[in-house]
Design goal:
2 copies of one chain form a homodimer.
Chain A: H1 2-29, E1 32-38, H2 44-54, E2 61-67, H3 72-79, E3 83-88, H4 97-106, E4 114-118, E5 135-141, H5 148-151, E6 161-165, H6 177-187, E7 192-195, H7 204-218, H8 222-228
Parallel strand pairs in A: 1-4, 1-5, 2-3, 2-4, 5-6, 6-7
Helix pairs in contact in A: 1-4, 2-3
């Protein structure tokens, strides 16, 4: 068992180095980036579609989609107007920095303002692997239940924002928003929780405004960028 | 990377041996067992509650609950009337046979007819680790979307039954039951798909009948069992 731990540490160290390389490439290209994580079916792809459409007049968006199989999600992102690349993880429960590096190879980043990395649907594994993205986003959804922060604490720590999706279903399922918010707050004090519905569009302006603010704060002039490097 | 694969194979081999030990212990005790797998929030614990209550006059049920943190699920199973043990996986995305062995140590199996093992909420990892259970059950849920068999094929192969939960939400979300069924059928031809709602109780009689049939078919007289060993 010791051997296993050592190997896992080596893999994570190599991953961190590759994540730093990805970050440098994104910085060089002036691209702001998000790592979207969630359970299967929480609405990552629907939020990507809404985001691409909602920011169309402000930011040019590219998407890297991670899934075990199919290109269904990248197809949806592309149909919404994004430059999109699908990565199939061959059974792995998460994207890693190496996969994202290959995704960057396949994308032309010139003219891209925002890169959204849509991780594999999983509340455990993705959070272990840095990808090089600037912000981490967790999407929870109402039908999953209000107990998820308590049962999957690792996924709520270290997030920069938590999106609670499918609030249109609140009338039809047992979900105590206060219990959910309290669970998140304990793990990640002060983190912003945005309640949205990708079906009705409720709450999406606040989400789009958050991205715009974050991307704007990150933006530097070409001169500043050159001076940094 | 080669080293990693070798280590992973060793772990899986050791797991298979421990799973065989678990199976032998269950056989010796005359216990029929299910391994319940699903995404986070698909309704595993709700189905456990409904099953314990629904079979109360036929089968004495014990539950082993796997979660990263808390004993919320085992508490619910116990409140429903089951003998219940919680296993916290310390960050692991699945139960393994060793953990279940410890769960069996903690349970008194005398007088138990049915053991339900509720795995960690995850559509990728649990299917890789045999636990020793007699039947594998996947619970899907309507709000997760009809594309899940296509995107998480590994979780649908090798299942003995697929339960589609939360059909009470069909009027409120986009979900094409035929597309879902087709996706499952391609991966697992002929597998039974049971549509249920743990909220309204719809479809649960068929689920309970399936368990009763399976447990009955598995039941052998003490003499037969002694003759086998």
């Amino acid at each position: 068992m010791t051997q296993r731990v050592v190997v896992a540490e080596k893999i994570l160290k190599a991953n961190d180095e590759l994540a730093a390389e990805n970050r440098a490439r994104l910085e060089d290209a002036g691209v702001f980036s998000l790592n979207l994580m969630a359970s299967p079916g929480a609405g990552k792809t629907s939020l990507v579609e809404r985001t691409v459409a909602g920011l169309a007049d402000q930011l040019r968006v590219a998407v890297i989609d991670g899934d075990l199989a199919t290109s269904l999600d990248a197809d949806r992102a592309a149909a919404a107007g994004a430059r999109a690349v699908q990565i199939n993880t061959n059974g792995q429960c998460h994207l890693d920095a190496n996969m994202v590096g290959h995704g960057l190879d396949a994308l032309d980043l010139s003219g891209v303002d925002l890169l959204i990395i849509e991780n594999v649907g999983n509340l455990v594994c993705p959070v272990e692997f840095a990808l090089g993205a600037h912000r981490n986003v967790l999407i929870a959804s109402v039908p999953e239940g209000d107990d998820k922060p308590y049962k999957y604490p690792g996924s709520y720590r270290g997030m920069d924002v938590v999106v609670l999706n499918k609030i249109d279903l609140l009338p039809y399922v047992r979900f105590d928003v206060d219990r959910f918010r309290h669970g998140v707050e304990v793990l990640n004090p002060g983190v912003r929780i945005l309640e949205v519905s990708c079906t009705t569009g409720a709450g999406l302006p606040a989400w789009l405004a958050w991205i715009s603010e974050q991307a704007e704060a990150h933006r530097v002039s070409p001169d500043e960028r050159r001076a940094r490097t």
